[in-house]
Amino acid sequence: MAASAQRITPFLMFEGRAQEAMDFYVSLFDDAKVVRVTRYGPDGPGAEGTVRHAVFSLAGRDFQCIDSAGHDFGFTPALSLAVECGSEEEIDRLYAALAEGGSELMPLGSYGFSAKFGWVNDRFGVSWQLTLPGEPS
């Protein structure tokens, strides 16, 4: 059987804050960068200078995003970005940064399935589940 050329990439739709979100995420994670960005011009349909389409990478995983020109829905915690952290310092740092200006769904703690876990919606509405593997204390 031939190898598939298919790629599945998370796609995030922001409302005018895609560049701010990308810059924030890239500042938090290792091996992270903005790969490419195209912007709306004066003829729209989005506001001039906002993100028409972008690709960014976090920990070697590509994401796509845009600034939507008007939709009546947002992000939901029904789909989260799951991050397996390498240390307690890392999970604490990421949780604090992602929770700032957002909302805590499950505060950092021990829930019986990992050493430490937390769930947060960030300031852009994107949902993140952070876990520190290992036995709960």
TrEMBL record:
Residue ranges of every copy of the PhnB-like domain listed in the record: 6-131
Transmembrane segments: none
Entries under SUPFAM superfamilies matching the protein: Glyoxalase/Bleomycin resistance protein/Dihydroxybiphenyl dioxygenase
Domain of life: Bacteria
InterPro entries named among the record's database cross-references: 3_dmu_93_MTrfase (IPR009725), Glyas_Bleomycin-R_OHBP_Dase (IPR029068), PhnB-like (IPR028973)
Name of the protein described by the UniProt record: VOC family protein
